[in-house]
């Protein structure tokens, strides 16, 4: 299974925040992800390979270790935003978490995740095709929402980047309970930028440690991982 911790990471150093949106990319389109997950679904059916782990296995371990240190109850309602191949849901289930939901706007992602969950005998996990920017009313009341790369992809949308970011924040507020946690991992945004985007409405709980690099005398992080808490 491929690790994308470094291959997808951009320079995320402690430089001043850049206000402009990113250059639009195919990574911000539904067509790109539909095609990508169709290929991964075919590969899984052929050889049982679940495909790429977004940001690598290290990104999953960091989040799970934080949850364990905080003694997060195993029954809490968790939403995986943009679940991809569902591997993170599998890892959460293996750690004993029992109230798991995954969504993705790609039907191929949903089919792939369901196939992987069936192979792991984890059919109690709820998965559905859902665009987080147009969140269904029933998808609310979560204790925790987790995002590994979905907000990054939205930030690369060829159409309406600023509006998409605002809709994301609105959906996140609707999905989470008061004082619920939001864990985001990003290779496009710095800590300072993410805090600006998600405030007001969220407080920083903790910045999770991520790999660091040094280039030309400047030290920074290739990936940002934050735990935020929603206000009441």
Automatic annotation (TrEMBL):
MF terms in GO: protein-lysine N-methyltransferase activity
Enzyme Commission no: 2.1.1.-
Compartments, as annotated in UniProt: Cytoplasm; Nucleus
Pfam families tied to this protein: Methyltransf_31 (PF13847)
GO biological-process terms attached to the record: methylation
Family, as annotated: Belongs to the class I-like SAM-binding methyltransferase superfamily. EFM4 family.
Protein name as catalogued: EEF1A lysine methyltransferase 2
Organism: Electrophorus electricus (Electric eel)
